[in-house]
Structure formats: structure tokens, C-alpha cells
User: Which sequence fits this backbone?
């Protein structure tokens, strides 16, 4: 490879391909609705995801109201309760977190952070959003069909998911399966775009090992999604055939409501294996982007380079690979060969090694850093606390023998909410505050943001910490009512009531958050282009918010990694990635 | 900047493992000289492999877990000519047709890169027709199973109900892939004939300028569909 001897560019290779062709929309519809600009698509994705996520939040209130004050709210009957449980889980995991991290942050940050003008196939990207939107509409439609949405639990286990007696077995389950299939098709279009953009459309000087960890997290999570969603797609098709055509893929010969069901010889465990082959990587599809983003937030707001960048990258890759061989730890009580249980328990515990390594590195990045307690930093620290807590309980549940008595109790609910619900949501909030000045060009309201943080942080602990005790006590999950049992003391009910009060308060804090985002976008103080003094490329754009094509006339050249903070002998405490070595001297 | 722009083919690539590490640790592109669409197709095909992998794994699982006997493939899929049933004859012809279409597709890619417009066009048409023949024979096979042998997705007179379920589902999903491929083969033969790939006309689907690399990308898909058929053939008809 020949290096051209221009002064500014003498450290980077020449461009290998010409400039990306950009599609310039001429109509209002083409600019804002069917936009092919990744940044607009990102906001569409995020807006839709948060909107449907708010529905799921309200559903969780209904569950909590029933648990705290049983049968006081008469509109919540057992069927409605199960529907709320199911839809809350599915919406939060797939339609909110997956779509927000990959469709939202992925679309906005990948092209900007790797120095591309847009995704490699903007048209496909646009279609990807509208297919996702269709999936959300299908999902929301299931609330209004006869029999209501499905109440099978978010895992949709057959045979009960499709047998009469389960809420939504008429039309709800079919709409859920259709919505999932459509979601996967839409996601595949977007996901292929993200992966190819990162692999093949980086700017000059941007090597893989100079990419910010945010991009690494989203990259590996997208690959996981592309390989894990097929299992869900296949199981959705097979279950839909069981319902529609009366096939017996998952349905054994079974009595239902006093009648023999019209099925014979199917294998319900097959569904569980397919579902969790998707379901476990799904946890990391949500967690890996959070890992990546939080690494950048901690490094930027502690003014220190990330500790062990290479280790962090390899940990992300290894966690991603391992996540495909641990799925049956969700099925210990379903029954399996003890040697399988042993295998899956071992792989599960091995995942703790790279994960713990990441936690150490985050803490070591904070250690003796110049920590600014900005709102994004507060959320990052909160993430660490929730994640460590959830990771610790994961060690209990990963062990087959310890997991058995804890299965299907609130301990499990507490564990996965700590580790893959609240922890990633902390990152989502921190990341939204962090990039808000870049996306809107304005500042969020600091007071409201801090109110949002403290209420959410303290409130979430009040919700999920007591659940561990309830779970160890033996309170089962997904039950409509636990009163009248002899093995539970009355105080369990009081704890349930206090959890509900905390959950309601946390929920209202999210309304403040959304109000802040909307109002500040119009009335907030003007923000400068690089308010956090960050090094990554998205903060070095000519205009804020970045225009169509992201960068100015010329694409930036990258000369260094993303973590040059507090470099000795340099005047500023940071050096952006696109500053050539000779300009970086003090 | 134009003076610094290099054409992809002027890249010097190191051979072997050293080249692999060199490419992956470099900037801009991990796969040097590979166009975006081609990289995307490869990743899509890996994702699609997981779909067919899940289908085939599910097929094997239901086959071993069902209690009723599995119908014998050599009897169910036999065709009678003049009274004597010949096992697997139709499927042998179908496989031959599909593999032949892979050959014409490979030739089309080759002639495309030579910018030999009309030969490419006719080879694409031949591939599309062979693919359509395959789908047609599949329709024949399905209708024979449904109307003559009484096989339904929910049951059949020969044995386990799952036989019809997985057969129609998996061959149907594969046939759907072939049909999509045939449609795109016709679209691209039209584009070749109109010279869209020579003039780099902006495509409706991707909004990117067309070129003969797209024929290779289409070829990747087509060969993949053929490869999947080999596995379906082995697992459904020979087991």
C-alpha cells in the first residue's frame, strides 16, 4: 500500500472507494416521513419504540395495582392480568429495547461514529422502519380484537398458548406471531445495513480497533440478532400453522376443556428450545449496545481513557459468541438430561468471566478519573450498580441445582429486571441525555433531568430489591393473586403494596422525562457542537444537528482511537479522533 | 480528493493468513474489493442458513418424537410409468433441473463480468426458466400428494401427521425462495437487456447505480437456494 505524501493526510491510506451517492428528497413526505436519512429514521424508530414502550409501562401499572390491592380494581380480571403480563414483557424486550438500541441508536450513531455519510443502503433502511412500524401496529391491534391480546406469557409456550382457556387464544396469539414475524423481516433489513456499514463503509483511518465501543456493542448485538431471530421466526411460523391448519408441531395429544384436542404427537419442548435459542442471545442483543454506550459515557464524563479497550472489545465478542450456547438454562425445570444441565450451567457461569471483566474495567476507568456528575454520568453509575446486582443473582439462577427452587418465583423477575430491564434503561436514559444536544441542538432541562434520574434510580431499587426477598420466600411470578396461602406471611402483601407505590412513582417520572425531551427540543438553551468535549466523530460535525450526509464537503480522516482524554502534554484535555498528530502538540 | 481515490482493483492484497489480518486491521473496509451489496448478501445468506437450519432441526425433532410410523419416502414419492413404480424419479429430475440452473447462473455471472450483454441475458433467462420448471414440478408433486394420496398438513393416510406438516412447510418455504429468485432473475434479465447495468442506471430497489456485480450477487442467492435443496433432498427423500 502506497502512502501519499500530503502533509495532512500522510498518516492515512488514500480512499479506496468514491463518495457514497446520496438520495436527496425533494418533497416534505420524502424528507420527514419516508426519509432515507439514517438520522431521521433513527428518530422515527426511537419515537415509535418509546411510544409503544409507554403502553407497556401502563400495563405494568395494572399488574402492580392488582398485586398490591387484589380485586380492588375490578377492570383487572385474571385474563386481563395475564394479557398485561404478556404484552408488557414482549413489548419491553423486543419492541422497545431491541428497536431502540439497534434501530434508534444504531441508525443515528453508526454512520456518524464510523465517518460514513449514511447507511450503505438508505432505501432499505427506510423500508426497515416502516416494516417495524407495521409490526407495532399489528401488535397494538391485538388489544382490540375479540378475546383480546394473548395472555400466554411473553415466552408463548405451547400447548397453553393456543388452547382455549388461555386469553387471546382466538386471535391475539395469531396477531402476536404475525407481528413478531414482520418485526424480524424489518429488523433483518436494518441489521444487514448496520453490519455492512460498519464492515465496509468506514472513513479513512477508522480501523476496527479505533471504533468507539458504542459501535462495537451495536455491531456485535446486530450480528447476534441476525443469527438468533431466525429461530423465533421459524417457531412463529410453526405455531401459526398449528393454530391455522391444525398441524401438530408443538402439540401433543391433549385434553382441553373436557374434549380431546385435534392434535397428536407434537413436541412442546421443541418450541422451548427454538424460543430460547433466540431468547438468550436476545438478552445480549439488549445488553451489548448498553455495554458499549456506557463505556463511552463513563470515559467521556470521567475525562479518562477507557481502561483496557482491547479487552473490552474482545469481551463483547466473546460474550456474543457464548450467548448462543447457554440457552437451556432457561429450561432447567422443563426437564433435560442432567449432563445437558451441567453443560449449560457451565457455559452460563463462563459468561460471567468476560462480563465481570467489563465491570472491573468500567470501575477502573472511573478510578482516579476526573468524574463530572453530569446527568449521563449519573445514569452510567446507576447502570453499574443495577448491573452488578443483577449479575450476582444471575450466578444463583445459572446453577441448575440452585435455580430449581427459585424457578418461576419473583426472584427470577427481580433478577432479569435488574440485569436486562432497568440496567439497559439506565443506559438508554443516559445516552439520550448525552446525545440530546447533538440530536436537537439544544439542552435538556437540567432540573427535570436530575429529578428524573433520582426518582428512577431510587424508585427502581425500591421496586426490584424487595422482590428478591419475596422470591426467596416463594412468591410465584405471573400469579393473579397470592392471598389465602399458608406459607406466605401477611407482610408479603405489604411488601407488594410498597413495590406498587414505588412503581407508580417511577412510571410518572418517565412522563417528566418525555415531557422534558419534547419541550426542550423547542425551548431549550442552544447547545454548542461539542458540549462534552468528546473525541468521537459525531461531535466534530460542521453543523449541529448534523445535516443530510453527516459531514461537510470532505469526510473526516481518523488518526487515533476514540479515548484520547487527559493526554499528558496537550493543552486541551481531549484530542478528537480527526486531529492529525502534528496538530495535537501543545 | 479525486487524485487520492483508488479503484478497488488497484489494491495490493497479501495472500494467506497475513492478508486476512492485514485486511481486518485496516481502515475503511474489512473485505477489500467486495462491494456493499455482495457483503450484505453473504451476511443475509448466513442469517437465512439459520432459518433453514432451524427448519431442518425441527423436522428431525418432530420425526423422532412422533409416536406414529413415518411414511416411507421411496413409496410416497414414487411415480408410475406403465404400471411399474419408480422411486424418487420426479425428485431426481427436479434436482437435476435445479443443479443445471446453477450451472447456467455461474455462466451468466462470468459473461456478465465480460460485459457480454446478450449472452448474459439469455443465460439469465435460461436460469429463470429452469427455476420456473422446478417450481412447476413442485406444484405437480404437491398436487399429486394432496389429491391422489390424500396428504394434508394436519394428517395423511400413510402414518405420522407431521410428515405432511413438515414436508409442505419446508419444501414450501424453499419453493418460495426459488420463486423469489425466478422473479429477480426476470427483473435482472430485463435490466441487462435494457443496458441498465452498462449505463449504471439508478435501481428502483436500492437507489444505487447498477452494474454487473449485481448479477454475481443474484448468483450467490441462487446457488444458496440450490445448496439448501441438496440438504432438503437428503433429509426428506433419502432418510
Assistant:
Amino acid at each position: 500500500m502506497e502512502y501519499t505524501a500530503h502533509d495532512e493526510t500522510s498518516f492515512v491510506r488514500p480512499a479506496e472507494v468514491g463518495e457514497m451517492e446520496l438520495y436527496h428528497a425533494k418533497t416534505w413526505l420524502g424528507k420527514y416521513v419516508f426519509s432515507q436519512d439514517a438520522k431521521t429514521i433513527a428518530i422515527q424508530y426511537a419515537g415509535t419504540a418509546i411510544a409503544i414502550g409507554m403502553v407497556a409501562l401502563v400495563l405494568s401499572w395494572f399488574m402492580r395495582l392488582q398485586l398490591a390491592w387484589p380485586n380492588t380494581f375490578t377492570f383487572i380480571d385474571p385474563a386481563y392480568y395475564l394479557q398485561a403480563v404478556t404484552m408488557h414483557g414482549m413489548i419491553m424486550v423486543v419492541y422497545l429495547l431491541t428497536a431502540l438500541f439497534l434501530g434508534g441508536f444504531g441508525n443515528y450513531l453508526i454512520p456518524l461514529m464510523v465517518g460514513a455519510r449514511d447507511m450503505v443502503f438508505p432505501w432499505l433502511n427506510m423500508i426497515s422502519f416502516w416494516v417495524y412500524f407495521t409490526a407495532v401496529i399489528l401488535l397494538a391491534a391485538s388489544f382490540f380484537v375479540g378475546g383480546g391480546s394473548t395472555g400466554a406469557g411473553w415466552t408463548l409456550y405451547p400447548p397453553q398458548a393456543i388452547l382455549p382457556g388461555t386469553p387471546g387464544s382466538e386471535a391475539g396469539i395469531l396477531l402476536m406471531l404475525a407481528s413478531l414475524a414482520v418485526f424480524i423481516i424489518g429488523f433483518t433489513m436494518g441489521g444487514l445495513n448496520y453490519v455492512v456499514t460498519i464492515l465496509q463503509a468506514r472513513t479513512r483511518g477508522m480501523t476496527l480497533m479505533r471504533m468507539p465501543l458504542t459501535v462495537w456493542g451495536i455491531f456485535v448485538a446486530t450480528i447476534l440478532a441476525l443469527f438468533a431471530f431466525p429461530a423465533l421466526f421459524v417457531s412463529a411460523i410453526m405455531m401459526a400453522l398449528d393454530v391455522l391448519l391444525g398441524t401438530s408441531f408443538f402439540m401433543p395429544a391433549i385434553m382441553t376443556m373436557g374434549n380431546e384436542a385435534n392434535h397428536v404427537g407434537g413436541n412442546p419442548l421443541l418450541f422451548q428450545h427454538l424460543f430460547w435459542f433466540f431468547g438468550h442471545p436476545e438478552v445480549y442483543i439488549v445488553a451489548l449496545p448498553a455495554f458499549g454506550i456506557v463505556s463511552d459515557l463513563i470515559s467521556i464524563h470521567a475525562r479518562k481513557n477507557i481502561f483496557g479497550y482491547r479487552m473490552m472489545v474482545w469481551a463483547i465478542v466473546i460474550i456474543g459468541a457464548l450467548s448462543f450456547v447457554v440457552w437451556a438454562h432457561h429450561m432447567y425445570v422443563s426437564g433435560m438430561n442432567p449432563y445437558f444441565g451441567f453443560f449449560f450451567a457451565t457455559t452460563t457461569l463462563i459468561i460471567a468471566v468476560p462480563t465481570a471483566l467489563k465491570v472491573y474495567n468500567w470501575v477502573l476507568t472511573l478510578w482516579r478519573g476526573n468524574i463530572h456528575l453530569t446527568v449521563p454520568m449519573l445514569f452510567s453509575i446507576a447502570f453499574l450498580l443495577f448491573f452488578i446486582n443483577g449479575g450476582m443473582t444471575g450466578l444463583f439462577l445459572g446453577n441448575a441445582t440452585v435455580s430449581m427452587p427459585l424457578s418461576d418465583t419473583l426472584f427470577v423477575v427481580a433478577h432479569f429486571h435488574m440485569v436486562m430491564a432497568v440496567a439497559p434503561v439506565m443506559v438508554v436514559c443516559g445516552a439520550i441525555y448525552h446525545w440530546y444536544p447533538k440530536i436537537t441542538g439544544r439542552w435538556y432541562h437540567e432540573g427535570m433531568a436530575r429529578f428524573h434520574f433520582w426518582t428512577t434510580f431510587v424508585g427502581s431499587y425500591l421496586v426490584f430489591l424487595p422482590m428478591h426477598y419475596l422470591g426467596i420466600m416463594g412468591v410465584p411470578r405471573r400469579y393473579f393473586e397470592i392471598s389465602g396461602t399458608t406459607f406466605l406471611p401477611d407482610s408479603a402483601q405489604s411488601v407488594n403494596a410498597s413495590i406498587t407505590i414505588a412503581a407508580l412513582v417511577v412510571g410518572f417520572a418517565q412522563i417528566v422525562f418525555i415531557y422534558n425531551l419534547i419541550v426542550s427540543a423547542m425551548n431549550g438553551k442552544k447547545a454548542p457542537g461539542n458540549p462534552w468535549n468528546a473525541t468521537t466523530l459525531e461531535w466534530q460535525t460542521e453543523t449541529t444537528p448534523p445535516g443530510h450526509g453527516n459531514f461537510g464537503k470532505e469526510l473526516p480522516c481518523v488518526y487515533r482511537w476514540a479515548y484520547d482524554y487527559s493526554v499528558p502534554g496537550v493543552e486541551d484535555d481531549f484530542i478528537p479522533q480527526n486531529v492529525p498528530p502534528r496538530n495535537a502538540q501543545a | 480528493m479525486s487524485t487520492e481515490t483508488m479503484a478497488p482493483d488497484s489494491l495490493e492484497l497479501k495472500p494467506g493468513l497475513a492478508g486476512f489480518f492485514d485486511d481486518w486491521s485496516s481502515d475503511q473496509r474489512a473485505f477489500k474489493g467486495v462491494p456493499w451489496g455482495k457483503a450484505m448478501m453473504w451476511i443475509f445468506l448466513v442469517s437465512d442458513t439459520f432459518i433453514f437450519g432451524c427448519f431442518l432441526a425441527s423436522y428431525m425433532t418432530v420425526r423422532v418424537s412422533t409416536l406414529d410410523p413415518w411414511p416411507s419416502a421411496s413409496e410416497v414419492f414414487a411415480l408410475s410409468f406403465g404400471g411399474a413404480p419408480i422411486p424418487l424419479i420426479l425428485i431426481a429430475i427436479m434436482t437435476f433441473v435445479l443443479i443445471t440452473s446453477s450451472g447456467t447462473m455461474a455462466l451468466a455471472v462470468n459473461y456478465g463480468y465480460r460485459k457480454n450483454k446478450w449472452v448474459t441475458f439469455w443465460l439469465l433467462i435460461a436460469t429463470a426458466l429452469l427455476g420456473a420448471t422446478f417450481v412447476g414440478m413442485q406444484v405437480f408433486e404437491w398436487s399429486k400428494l394432496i389429491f391422489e394420496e390424500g396428504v394434508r398438513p394436519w394428517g395423511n393416510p400413510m402414518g405420522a401427521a407431521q410428515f405432511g406438516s413438515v414436508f409442505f412447510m419446508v419444501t414450501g418455504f424453499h419453493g418460495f425462495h426459488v420463486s423469489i429468485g425466478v422473479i429477480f432473475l426476470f427483473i435482472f434479465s430485463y435490466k441487462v437487456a435494457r443496458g441498465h447495468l452498462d449505463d449504471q442506471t439508478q435501481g428502483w430497489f436500492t437507489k444505487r447505480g447498477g452494474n454487473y456485480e449485481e448479477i454475481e450477487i443474484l448468483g450467490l442467492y441462487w446457488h444458496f437456494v440450490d445448496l439448501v435443496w441438496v440438504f432438503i433432498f437428503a433429509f426428506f427423500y433419502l432418510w
About this structure: The longest strand of chain A covers residues 255-256. Chain A touches chain B through 64 residues (CB under 8 Å). Chain A is about 60% helix and 0% strand.
